Amino acid sequence: MKYIQAASKKKTIQRMIEPVTKEIWWSMILHGIAGGLIPVLSVFSMEWITSRILKSNVEIQEVIKIIAFVSLAGFGLETIKTQAERRTYNKINYIRLDFLKELMHKTMTMDLKYYENPEFADEMESCIIAVQSNNNGIEGIYHTFYLLGAKLTGAILLATILAQINFWIVVVIGLSVLITFWTLTKISDARYKRKEELNQAERRNYGYGHLTTDFSYGKDIRIYNFQDRFLESYENEIKKLEGIYRDLFLVERRFSLLSILGLVFADLFAYYILASQGMTVQISKFVMYLTATSLFSLMMNEITEDFANIHREFAYCKDTIGFLDMNLITDESDKNYAPSTPISVEFQHVSFKYPNSEKYVFEDLSFRIEPSEKLALVGVNGAGKTTIVKLLTGLYRPTSGRIFINGIDYTQFSIEDLHELFGVVFQDVEPLAVTIKENVAASSSDIDEKRVEISLRQVGLWDKISQYEKGIDQMLLKIIDEDGAVLSGGENQKLMIARALYRKGTQMMIMDEPTAALDALAEEKIYSEFDQIMQGKTSLFISHRLASTLFCDRILLLDGGKVLEEGTHDELLTYDGLYAHMFKTQGKYYQEVEENEKQASAESI
Ligand code: ADP
């Protein structure tokens, strides 16, 4: 893998042993002893019963006593074994869930440059495999290892019994088992080697499958006749996937043939030895050894499969642990910084290109925002407006150049403190399926309900929300609660603005096309209220709609990675450059839209 280094064997084992509690170890020992004695009991019971039955004067009562004893002892051992296993199963499950939680936390806190990199995402898929299910990966290894104790104890005891008649039986069965183990590891190594190809092919297959059922694409697919194009690509992807599976199947077939031959030979050898020595031992002993041989062979095969499973799943665990132990947060500093007044921001000769791209979004970009100033950043799509927000909030760092907050290089602040300074509202906002107050406070505890109300009032959502029976305790979305409320696109955006306002540490508001989902009238209304909403905080407004930024103190027009024009709205109009041209063109368009909307709302009344 290119970005994620698998952890070493030692490190992975250490990390996997760490969460195993004493309770689980004891349960495993108990399970191992009880489970290991069960096959031995079966073997001896064969001898005890056969020897009694073959006596010339069979004593039925004695036979019944033995059967009763064996059944009782077997039942006791089985009960201990299953009870221990049942009680431990959930504890093992929790260990995996803890690893999953750690992984989710890592994914949600890692730098955005990793999150937005598709190659990294592909590699991360392999790291998720090991924490995804109960029977594979980390949890699969714990369960298999837990059960192995009993099988190993049983196998060792049976080997000791068999060694008494002929040690070679143990050796030959052991050898055949080693061959099986070797072949199984070869098969799983072949699969692991192609895991990235497999992940990619499966992801793409899923992607195409998903596209065909996603309602939002339904109209375009039909109107523009995309069906054939989709099906062709889908077929290509399926062929790729089939090709990989075919190769893997060939490897599997070749190696499993070798393993079957080994097993058949070992069994034949063992039964041959037994048959040839059968003449010299008592029949009851012969039956006992025969049972021991078949149980030993069976158990050794199970043990081999278990070890091969562990070997296979361990490779994925190494990836997961490697990912978990990576430092994916660029946080050079631990300096605390929490100013209590609106901040100033300065970009000094900032150049930036995305990590997976060769093209610079900006080169040598410099501009300044004064405390409490309202600055508008305008420019065509792709000019780099959102990238400026990502840089300013520390989601990405400049490739070169520096960014200052209140005159201090912002790399000196811890990332948490930096994030605390900004209240950001992005264009594509979605509330979480939690209550309104949790959405506003971005937390589920210590919520200042009065502050939630004030923030909702400031954005003009209070009237709507106070009408809900549960008020700010109303759940949103229907994912978790069937009675959850669903807000309109514009209301969602207002909710996100309320969230930005709620935060006490916010000293700068950033609105990245926050009104994109609002209609022109609602947009005009919320912009006219922005002055009051922002409460004198430093503010950065991003909009493709120039008229909406008229209330700002200053406007920067970004074009071709540079600040092309700068000034107040009137200054830029007088300058009569690109801004003035865009403003006039948009003016005509929006005038028509607004008139249509006004007419439509008048008609609906
Ligand atoms: P704007 O907000 O002005 O529409 P953006 O800041 O979103 O522009 O994008 C600026 C440029 O950076 C565009 O060319 C875009 O394709 C590119 N870009 C944006 N995000 C990424 C990314 N994660 N990786 C690579 N390129 C990106």
Describe the model.
The chain has 605 residues and is an alpha/beta fold. It has three domains: 9-325, ABC transporter type 1, transmembrane domain (ABC transporter transmembrane region fold); 345-430 and 489-603, P-loop containing nucleotide triphosphate hydrolases (Rossmann fold, 3-Layer(aba) Sandwich); 432-486, no CATH class. It is built from 20 helices and ten strands. Helix 18 (520-533) links the parallel strand 7 (508-512) and strand 8 (538-542). Helix 2 (22-53) runs parallel beside helix 6 (137-165) and helix 5 (118-129) packs antiparallel against helix 11 (283-324). It starts with 8 loop residues before the first helix and ends with a helix. It binds adenosine-5'-diphosphate (ADP). Residues 116, 354, 356-357, 361, 379, 381-387 line the site of adenosine-5'-diphosphate.
SSE blueprint and pairings:
Layout: H1 9-17, H2 22-53, H3 60-109, H4 112-115, H5 118-129, H6 137-165, H7 167-193, H8 195-213, H9 215-223, H10 227-278, H11 283-324, E1 345-353, E2 360-369, E3 374-378, H12 385-392, E4 400-405, E5 408-409, H13 415-421, E6 422-425, H14 436-441, H15 449-458, H16 462-465, H17 489-502, E7 508-512, H18 520-533, E8 538-542, E9 554-559, E10 562-567, H19 569-575, H20 578-604
Parallel strand pairs: 3-8, 3-9, 6-7, 7-8
Antiparallel strand pairs: 1-2, 1-4, 4-5, 9-10
